[in-house]
Structure formats: C-alpha cells, structure tokens
Structure to design on (245 residues):
C-alpha cells in the first residue's frame, strides 16, 4: 500500500494546481506565452526525430513488413485499452466503457493477446481516449500550448493528462518484469511504426514548412480540438486528422 502514496500525491498535486489556475485558462485561441521555451524544446525534439526517430523508423519498416508492424501496434494498443476503460468510466461514458471491455476481452483471447483485432469484425472498436480528454469532459480548459521534450506538442491540460495516464496505468500494476519489458518494446515498435506510416506527412511539417514550430502547433491544436469537440467534427472536417491519429 505504501507504494501507492507517491503516485497518489503526484495525481492530486497537478489536479489541485489545475483547479487553481483553470479560471485563467483560455480556450479557442492560439496564444503562446511559453513560445521562447517551446521553440527550444521543439528544436531539440526535431533534432531527436532527425537523428534517431526518423532513421530508426525507416530501419524498422525495412526489417518488419507492414503486417508484422501492424501486429506489434495492435498488441501495444490492446494493452492500453484498460486505461481507456478507466477514463471512459471517469467520463461517465458507459457505452464506450462497455465497448472497450468487449474489445479488450475479444482481442486478448481470440486475437492472441491483441496481435489481431477480431473485435472489428463484431463491430466493437471504441475510439481511444486519455485523461486529458477526461479533464476536458470535467470542464477544465486546455490552458496554453506547450511543447514537452520527448513527448512533443501538448497543452497544459494534456501534459497533466499524460502524466496521470503513465502513473495510473492499471495494467502496469499487474505485469511481471518480463511482461513489462515486452510491453515497453511493443510500445516503442508502435511509435516507430506510426512514424514510418506518417513519414511523408511529418517530414513535410518538420523539414519542408517555413516555420516547423508554428505548423506543428497548428496541427496539434486543431487536431486535438476536433477530437475533443464532436460538435465541431460534425460540421467541419479535420485537415490534420492523419497527423493526429
């Protein structure tokens, strides 16, 4: 039980901070008070992509065929479904919580631990979610734009969401050391597979645009807002849907 004290503290403090600051949060604008710091983080992230992520994803794509890459990504995403279930429950979305449960059960059994996704044939395929979306459902505004080292583009609200999702991953508390390493390897493979699949789109934003920082910010904020606001998505199509998948 003592092991849980520190994660709980990390959970409560950010929420307290967010609650205290939320009246000053701004939604529906592109103000960037942290731009100087964000741009420095962006340049570091861009260098990491250029020297590590992009070449690694190219090698990964050459070693593994598309079907194999999809199997790795399926496995990785399947073991993230319990987190989605927790967030959908916190959001009061019982329909998607039920879908996520069915999806996880079917893919973990018939789909061989999630390597395959037979749930799609049954029409059970809930959209992924996260604690950032949960905070959005609870009424917290997005805050200002931030670009975090290694994690990339985000907002103040979504940074807290990512931290909480990492600390309170329900599967993470149950895995043995070797299972945890296997899952970590699959998660890395999923990142490399996504980078390879969206290679040309990401390259256009990072290396061919006049201002890659502004373009990255625009892509993230518009994509995220379309994702979290169905009333917008129902009226307009998201121009950055592929980039934000």
């Amino acid at each position: 039980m003592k092991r849980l004290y520190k994660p709980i503290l990390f959970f409560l403090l950010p929420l307290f901070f967010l609650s205290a600051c939320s009246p000053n949060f701004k939604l529906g604008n592109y103000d960037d008070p942290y731009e100087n710091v964000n741009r420095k983080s962006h340049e570091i992230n861009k260098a990491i992509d250029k020297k590590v992520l992009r070449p690694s994803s190219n090698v990964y794509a050459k070693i593994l065929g598309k079907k194999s890459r999809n199997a790795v990504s399926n496995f990785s995403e399947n073991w993230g479904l319990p987190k989605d279930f927790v967030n959908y429950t916190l959001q009061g979305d019982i329909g998607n919580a039920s879908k996520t449960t069915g999806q996880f059960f079917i893919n973990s059994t018939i789909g061989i631990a999630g390597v395959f996704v037979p749930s799609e044939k049954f029409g059970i395929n809930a959209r992924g979610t996260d604690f950032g979306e949960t905070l959005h459902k609870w009424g917290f505004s997005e805050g200002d734009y931030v670009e975090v080292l290694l994690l990339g583009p985000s907002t103040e609200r979504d940074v807290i969401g990512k931290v909480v999702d990492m600390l309170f991953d329900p599967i993470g508390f149950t895995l043995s050391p070797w299972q945890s390493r296997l899952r970590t390897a699959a998660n890395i493979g999923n990142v490399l597979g996504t980078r390879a699949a969206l290679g040309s789109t990401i390259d256009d934003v990072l290396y061919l645009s006049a201002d890659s920082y502004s373009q990255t910010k625009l892509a993230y904020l518009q994509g995220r807002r379309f994702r979290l606001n169905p009333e917008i998505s129902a009226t307009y199509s998201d121009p950055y849907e592929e980039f934000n998948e």
